[in-house]
Amino acid sequence: MPQADATAELTAALGERIFVLDGAMGTTIRTYGLSESQARGQKFADSKKDILNNGDILTLTNPDVIGDIHRRFLEAGSDIVETNNFSATSISQSEFFVDDPREHGGKKDPEFFQGIIEDPFLRDLAYEINLESARLARKWADEVGSNSGRKRYVAGAIGPLTVSLTNSPDASDPGFRVITFDQVVHAYREQVRALIEGGSDLLMVETIFDSLNAKAALVAIQDVFDQDRITLPIIISAAVGRGGETMISAQTSEALWNAVAHVKPLAIGLNCSLGPDLMKPFLEELSSAATTHISCYPNAGLPNPLTPTGFDMTPADMNRWLGDFANSGLLNFAGGCCGNTPEHIAAIAEAVKNAPPRQVPLLA
């Protein structure tokens, strides 16, 4: 059953301390050394395409692995764990189960994606992944919360999709879009409803590289809230490049806040794309503009294939940087994205545990 609206409860707690998010599911999955056969399990044994990199599928084929990762992040100090369904829409799952028409002289266009969102297999698969991911995270949040005496929360993850509403992929036809806004809303609406049914406490529209995709996700959320008469807190988090803009729609963090403030999110923040060293000035800009809580879960530095996690920064590095953010009055939520293991999250939790939370500015 859907959880009760946690906004008031979380808002009160955020006035007292900085909440700790979890780390990188993908990075941590790789440490388990799963094979293609293990990732497929019996359920997807006959799939024509490789699905080892489809981490969302592991909720169905390897729930013990995903549950163990949730447990480790929670025991490392996470107050909130995200569901393992970052790409669990019919649109994104089609990458693993449908032949690319471009390989046969065709193209991806709204007609192609209409077939995708109407495909019974993809629709049911996306719903099942979202539902079971939320249930699995809920199980471990409740178990660790009960054992530790500190309540833990589940954030339903809503990723950015593998297509863009803002830009055309065809340089000779700048008006062309591979998919329509309504199609994206439809896919997101199904994801949101399953996440709520599975027991999410809040929803996290994250890793935003295209602001229009995020807008579609927010429209879908509001549609479900209105239709099902439920409201959950929302966190909105963008991935920005070295110039501080979302990477496809080129919207600054302040502009993003102005575009989404009307939904009254519990928090807005930055994640992925950059390490904390490069992210700090953009986090400062967002903190100055936003009249809500601020979240931040950066990558563990820049990619480095020669390191165990694939990223440069160690737990000690993340401890130092996120501690600096906290002591600078920038944080209400702190965590890690790509490259951040449970050990990194334990270091982040230690860094922020005694730091005062950022004070939310009052509206004039």
- So what's the overall shape? globular
Report the portion of residues in β strands. 5-15%
The helix/strand order is HEHHHHEHHHEHEHEHEHEHEH
How large is the radius of gyration? 19 Å
The CATH architecture can be named as Alpha-Beta Barrel
**Major beta sheet, specifics?**
8 strands, parallel
On the 0 to 100 scale, the average pLDDT is: 94
The top level CATH class name: Alpha Beta
Instruction: Identify the strand order in the major beta sheet.
Output: 1-8-7-6-5-4-3-2
State the helicity in percent bands. 40-55%
In total, the number of strands is 8
- Measure the end-to-end span: 39 Å
Structure annotation, total helices: 14
Q: Tell me the count of domains.
A: 1
- Secondary-structure content class: alpha/beta
